[in-house]
Amino acid sequence: MPILSRKPAREPGSRSFAAAFAEPEIGAGRAARPTAPGVREAARASLFETCANPGCGSGWLHLWRSRTAPVFEGGWNCSPACTAARVEAAVRREMEGRGSAVENHRHRIPLGLVMLEQGWITAGQLRQALDAQKVAGAGRLGHWLVRQQGVSENLVTRALGLQWSCPVLPLEFHDAEGLTPLVPRLFIDAFGALPLRVAAGKLLYLGFEERLDPVLALSLERMTGLRVESGLVEGTLFRLAHARMLNAGFPAVGLIEAGSEQAAVHAFTKSIERARPAESRLVRVHDCLWLRMWRRAQTGPLPERDSVEDLICSIGAQ
Ligand SMILES: [Zn+2]
């Protein structure tokens, strides 16, 4: 099912979405990772800059053109045709990595075994929870351990952290409204992610409930220029904050389904030419291409909500 046909509201079972899109692709498109928040570079764009399209034959200097925008991935484009050429190259780059790399699929010790080893549950508790899970034919083991065996949720989350070799992140104060300019609502919903906070202006803590999504984390690093530290958040706390965040105000977003890469290139180019952003960037997140446009030069790691605009495109079967 195409991702964009989903209803905006969260439905039961929507987490399986993450699984559906969790294709193996770690490392895809690493070359495009920005070295710093690239928007600042754009702000300093020289008047003597030439068109960023390597195939451009105009030789126009920025100085001679009234077109000061649009900027795409740090480079000024002298004409719509040059914008299209650069967007096309970026789409090709993003799609090339699709499904090629191997997922970080380390062997994971089963959760029950982790908890048993730590002495957090008894063999009897584990057996009963596994039986209950089998009879019900649904629910994760952790859920049954909490619900049926009275094991604390905190212990289950700590065990999941050991299983994934990742930290358990605290959720004491969560500024949902302040964080919405970082990640489109669609990704927060579909991939079960929760931006927690930005530390020291360069580190984004990203929380998950049961399993990490390294693909999303890498895409966010490339888009925001922030280093992303992923971790787990205790279930109940996570679900409350996640629901609150989904109700917060997000930057403007356009959702499109393109029948082909060429159609996606056309849609992105059209948006860039219309918005004339001070900077824009394209990354892939699972089966979506995400274009972000900054209307004005960025001054900090957290853009203002009204200064960014997203366009998310799912590419259909070709
Ligand atoms: Zn050009």
Verbal overview:
Among the domains are: 30-99 and 252-315, no CATH class; 111-164. Helix 3 (80-96) packs across helix 12 (261-275) and helix 5 (123-136) packs across helix 6 (141-149). It is built from 12 helices and 9 strands. The chain is 37% helix and 16% strand. With 318 residues, it is α/β, with parallel strands linked by helices. The longest helix is centred in the first third of the chain and has 17 residues, at 80-96. The protein has a 4-stranded mixed sheet. The chain has a 3-stranded mixed sheet with strand order 3-4-5. Strand 3 (193-199) and strand 4 form a beta hairpin. Bound molecules: zinc ion. Zinc ion is lined by residues 51, 53, 56, 58, 78-79, 82. Zinc ion binds next to loops.
The averaged pLDDT comes out at: 83
Q: Structural class, from secondary structure content?
A: alpha/beta
Largest sheet report: 4 strands, mixed
Radius of gyration: 22 Å
Q: How much of the residues is beta strand, in percent?
A: 15-25%
Q: Number of DSSP strands?
A: 9
Order of helices and strands: HHEEHHHHHHHEEHEHEHEEE
Shape: elongated
Report strand order across the widest sheet.
6-9-8-7
Number of helices: 12
Catalogue the ligands: zinc ion
Which spans of ≥5 residues are poorly predicted at pLDDT below 50?
5-44
The amount of helix comes to: 25-40%
| CA-CA gap between termini | 14 Å
Present the secondary structure layout.
Blueprint: H1 16-21, H2 38-43, E1 71-72, E2 75-76, H3 80-96, H4 111-117, H5 123-136, H6 141-149, H7 153-164, H8 176-179, H9 185-190, E3 193-199, E4 203-208, H10 214-224, E5 227-232, H11 235-246, E6 252-258, H12 261-275, E7 279-285, E8 288-294, E9 308-315
Parallel strand pairs: 4-5, 6-9
Antiparallel strand pairs: 1-2, 3-4, 7-8, 8-9
The site of zinc ion (ZN) has 7 residues, from loops.
